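I am writing to request your help with a piece of structural work I have in hand. A protein sequence and the structure tokens that stand for its backbone fold form the material at issue. Please examine both parts with care and let me know of anything in them that strikes you as inconsistent. The record follows directly beneath this note.
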Amino acid sequence: MSTFTRRSTLGLMGGALATPFLVRSARAGTAVSVGALRFVSHAPSYIAQERGYFAEAGLDVEFDFFEAAQPMAVAIASGDTGYAMTAISGGLISLAEKGVTKVIGGALSEEKGISGQKILASNAAFEAGLKTPADLDGRSFGMTQAGSSFHYMGSRIAAAEGVSLKYKPLQKTGAVIGAIKSGQIDAWSIVPHIAKPLADAGAVQIIGEVADYIPDYQVTTVFTSAKTAENETEQTRAFLQALSRGAADFNAALIDQTADEAEREAVIALLASYVYPDRSLEDARDPIVNGAMRINADMALNRNSVMDQLDWFKSEDLVKSSISYETLVDESYVDILS
């Protein structure tokens, strides 16, 4: 397999885990970099790090922080970052087609009964008549890049409502937030830990739920380089085992609420230090609690959702029509939900 630098990778992009959780299969102290966004959805990584689950699995983890999904895929493919957890994007799929990335698990999911990603309207657009997703025709819709998860969500919403959107790529999540707050874009969809505080502050209006349009959506996946998936199987399984322990703690504390109050508060405080490092715990608590969505147990993958996403990317000519599910996913690491 060829060696891919970050520069060459950018050119290429164009458009069952068993219990017990703990395995000591990786070499002790193996240095591993993990890509992350400062989102509640990255909770398994943060919990596994702070509670020593990575260390117990023989991994010495450092985080690489990003502001969008596609640059994270570039870093994985180039070898600058070892593992990551983020949405499927056109860039990730294209890199898989080139033989340099592989999805090895599932993470964040939409689930009926759990408040998920929100469809937002700017205040200006709302006052001008954008009250529901059915009113989106001709409106501008924010996204980071073409072929991002925001592009996919917008397209699925638009198709269901029979409307047309004008997509505005703004590169970074922070830029999209600024654009919708200022009325430079009319609409957006985003995870609840961002959406709800914006709405509570009166900066935007919530006009719908993504789950109503994409039920059981596999929002994010775990992925690595194809080279790592093929050659570092023990390390990769150890990483997934540790990540699964973090996911179990998160779900128990904030989704299923089977943990006691002390544990719940401990998890909230831990996440606040990563997701909102510049805020007090008091200010961070509500966004974290209100933004919690299910992380798949054992990092299992919703195959049907991934296949639907892949089919959409193909239909929009954002990736080659020849790319198969097997090209994207290495199921030797994956429990399948459906």
Observations:
- The mean pLDDT is 90.
